[in-house]
Amino acid sequence: MMKVYDFNVENIDGTQTSLDIYKGKVLLIVNIATHCGYTPQLESLEELYQKYNDKGFEILAFPTYQFLGQSKGNSQKILNFCKLNYGVTFKVFAKTNVNGKKTIPLYQYLKQTVDIKSIRWNFVKFLINRQGDIVGHYDSKIVPEELEQDLLNIL
Alpha carbon of 155 to those of 15, 51, 87, 90, 97: distances in Å? Predict the structure, then answer.
């Protein structure tokens, strides 16, 4: 049976990373945007990351341009925006597709596993336990603080 650890994803610099480097960690996978009404969630995500990173928690962020073009610029510009405006230190990967014919395999797997046809908007979140299983799927409207108890339950 496949797990999130079985996928490779593209880094900001265009190289590939195998997600197996995150085995044994609790992950929050989220598609982000820099010019969206939900963009301030980056600050809350960073707070959650700082609070629990030393307990084995990682956030993996995937910028996408698929929702009204709300991630402007190339991957490096997006990363710089996140760092400068929201102090982001968690992992931000290359701009990617989470829907459509060019959906990256990781997002194909995430959607199939939780039985959704498409990601509805920016800041959809998937909580992954230490065994690599999806244990939570949260809509954009769910702010990071609202999933903190679910996170604590698996840390």
Answer: 30, 12, 24, 17, 29
